[in-house]
Design goal:
heterodimer, A: alpha+beta, 12 helices, 12 strands, B: two-stranded antiparallel sheet, 2 strands, 1% strand, globular
């Protein structure tokens, strides 16, 4: 799978770890032979991180445990409205995404899964993995989504309320059927999370695959702004109707969190359960001790919380 | 009646307009991908042209306020030309917004779905109201033409407007002030772009609009007088307009200097760096020479010194410089403000003991369809002005 193009910094990392990669692939093969793949992965995180460092090569091997989506069902009729703008969301919920920079190695799988499932054009990445800083000779990565600010500058910018905060859970949503394409919200967003559809997206979604998932969200028309929406229409809203818990059940959790192979992304309700369907619950002490939010100086109060990298796990990964 | 020169001029403007319409057709069919705009610089020459046209149309509200609210009657002879220039500018600016938005068929949405927090909504609403008022203000002028005089009910209607005109003018002045300021505020509130993030932007915008709008009245009156070989507006009145423009310009320059030094007095993250960008190459020439020296100090000196401003050639040149300065200023605010994009991955951890903030430079090269529409917009404004002066009693005896 072409992982290289989703994140500019990834290729360097892989070059850096070429030797380790080969070792890892050998390890994986052994594990598969002993038919203890999933058990081993879960029991020894350190070992797993080491293993998964070779993700580019071992993607096919791992397919069994990290399948993000199923083959596309026959496409339904395109709805008259892309987003149900009247839906208030779960009352009182405070959805947060927690990204552990300690464990993130910048593989870019979250970007790819997001692109595949939300069906964004080639030049639009709702979720981009940036190289943020360094600890020693190890890069620290920062996956940037829509920060889902508590006090979003984009909402105050939009002249037609095409982007708004939901009444119930306060998530920031785009109504693509109302957006006039003035691009003022792009100027207002301090995180660069908003993208404009400069042309109609007609090409095939090349990244859609069994590994990263298949399009579940309708393509946005030409001339509107779009952004990450925490997978509200395709995950959270549907899950709440079914009575599932985001962060616990795979169907209810955003695709980027589901696919993360490095124990780095978590999702959930700040007042309730925060976790990952595979890695389990995340303790709130971890968030309060290592958590930080991007550009806090601007006072936007993002809902995406990053956990500071301290370099312990990372040191062990890198040779 | 119409001379060959005039017909040729109108023909040239129509050709430009046709180019603009053709470019608009390309944009509507292929989408905004044909422009040079991108996700870093997403407002290009069209928005620059729009905000410059609106600023230069501010003469309409300045003169209306002077004549009808401050009741300085001696400026009455130029009230009509001011309104005509205003109307021409606003119609062009509104036309420029149509291709610029991604979904042109939804252009009326801001009037239906209100978002009172948005400066842009505020601007769209008050521009709509103000353009309507400018049209109403034009009614008495149109009513004086021979054609309307012959149709009694229409003539009566336009006559009856005279008595309630001060009301419309007052509403117009209020709405005009609102959006001239809001245009600056629109840029001022943006947290994402440091060059724009200055609360004093509305004040700077209003001041430069008053100076530029008044200068455009001088410029247009003098050029029209020259072409028609008549003194359409008395020289001492134009000199007095120059004085207004000049002193507003001086006030503007003082505020600009305060703004400049207060943002540099002590280090404030990003703001200082971004302002350094404005005053460092390759944008140095535009800012210091185009905006400050030629567009500000030179005309301010000419307008402020009585001996210099009485020289008609210098008065003409100075008003031209002010117009140029306003256009360069709007270009700097709009384009350079976007180029200095400090959204960058290494800036994410600001205030967290991470590396210091630094900005990344965007790039923007306007394409031919963009210039086509810009030329079309300017041609539309000039066409409205030229035909208005030709067909309506703009510089008429009643004034």
């Amino acid at each position: 799978m072409g992982l290289g193009f989703c994140c500019a910094d990834v290729p360097h990392y892989y070059q850096f770890n070429k030797k380790e990669e080969m070792k890892s692939v050998m390890t994986i093969k052994k594990q598969i032979d002993s038919k203890e793949q999933s058990k081993t992965l879960r029991s020894s995180r350190r070992h797993f991180v080491k293993v998964a460092a070779g993700a580019a090569i071992s993607a096919t091997v791992l397919r069994g445990s990290f399948v993000a989506g199923q083959a596309p069902a026959s496409k339904a009729e395109k709805p008259s409205k892309l987003i149900d703008a009247d839906k208030p969301g779960k009352e009182g919920a405070h959805w947060v995404m927690v990204i552990d920079q300690e464990n993130c190695v910048g593989c870019g799988w979250c970007s790819s899964a997001c692109k595949a499932v939300n069906d964004t054009p080639m030049d639009i990445w709702w979720n981009i993995v940036y190289k943020e800083s360094q600890i020693g000779n190890k890069n620290v990565f920062l996956p940037r989504l829509c920060m889902q600010c508590e006090d979003p500058p984009c909402v105050d910018a939009c002249p037609v309320k095409a982007t708004y905060k939901r009444e119930g859970d306060g998530l920031v949503i785009m109504d693509y059927d109302r957006c006039i394409g003035c691009r003022y919200c792009m100027a207002a967003c301090p995180y660069g999370s908003r993208y404009f559809n400069w042309k109609e997206y007609t090409e095939e979604n090349k990244i859609a695959s069994i590994q990263f998932g298949f399009p579940e969200f309708w393509r946005r028309p030409r001339g509107v702004v779009e952004k990450c929406n925490f997978c509200i229409p395709i995950r959270i809203d549907k899950a709440i109707e079914k009575g599932l818990t985001p962060g616990k059940d795979k169907e209810a959790t955003p695709v980027c969190v589901n696919i993360c192979p490095y124990n780095a992304m978590f999702f959930g309700d700040l007042n309730g359960y925060i976790g990952h369907p595979k890695w389990g619950q995340l303790s709130k002490d971890t968030i309060s001790s290592r958590g930080w939010r991007v550009r806090q100086d601007l006072g936007t109060k993002p809902r995406v919380v990053y956990l500071k990298a301290i370099g312990e796990v990372l040191k062990k990964v890198v040779v | 009646m119409a001379s060959i020169k005039f017909v040729a001029w109108i023909g040239f403007l129509v050709a430009m307009l046709a180019w603009g319409l053709y470019s608009m057709y390309i944009v509507f069919t292929e989408g905004l991908i044909v422009t040079g705009m991108n996700n870093t610089v997403f407002w290009g020459v069209w928005i620059t042209a729009d905000i410059a046209l609106i600023a230069l149309s501010a003469g309409a509200f300045t003169m209306s306020a002077t004549v009808y609210i401050l009741r300085i009657e001696r400026f009455k002879p130029i009230a009509r030309v001011a309104v005509l220039i205003g109307l021409a500018g606003y119609i062009s600016a509104v036309m420029g917004l149509i291709p610029d938005i991604g979904r042109p068929e939804r252009f009326y949405y801001p009037l239906v779905y209100w978002q009172e927090h948005s400066f842009l909504w505020d601007i769209i609403l008050s521009i709509t109201v103000y353009t309507t008022i400018l049209m109403i203000e034009m009614v008495p002028t149109v009513g004086e033409t021979k054609l309307i005089r012959r149709i009694a009910p229409l003539h009566k209607l336009s006559e009856s407007l005279h008595s309630i005109m001060p009301l419309f003018v007052t509403i117009g002045v209020i709405f005009s002030m609102i959006h001239q300021g809001s245009l600056g505020g629109m840029y001022g509130v943006l947290k994402g772009r440091a060059v724009w993030y200055r609360p004093e932007m509305p004040v700077l915008f209003i001041a430069s609009a008053i100076a530029g709008g008044t200068a455009l009245i001088i410029f247009a009156s003098m050029i029209t007088s020259k072409i028609s070989h008549k003194e359409l507006v008395k020289a001492d009145l134009l000199t007095e307009l120059g004085k207004i423009s000049g002193f507003t310009l001086i006030a503007y320059l003082i505020m600009q200097a305060w703004d400049f030094y207060s943002t540099r007095y002590s280090y404030s993250p990003m703001l200082t760096e971004s302002l350094n960008l404005l005053s460092s190459t390759p944008h140095e020439l535009l800012f210091w020479v185009g905006e400050i020296a030629l567009g500000g100090i030179v005309p301010a000196v000419i307008f402020a010194a009585p001996r210099l401003r009485r020289n008609s050639k210098l008065l003409f040149a100075a008003s031209g410089f002010v117009i140029l300065g306003v256009i360069v200023n709007r270009w700097n605010v709009n384009i350079i403000g976007q180029l200095a994009n400090y959204y960058s991955p290494i800036n994410m951890g600001a205030g967290q003991g991470r590396p210091e903030l630094s900005f990344i430079l965007g790039s923007y090269v306007p394409t031919i369809p963009e210039w086509g529409i810009t030329a079309g917009l300017i041609a539309l404004g000039l066409l409205i002005y030229s035909l208005g002066v030709k067909l309506l009693p703009i510089f008429g005896k009643e004034g």
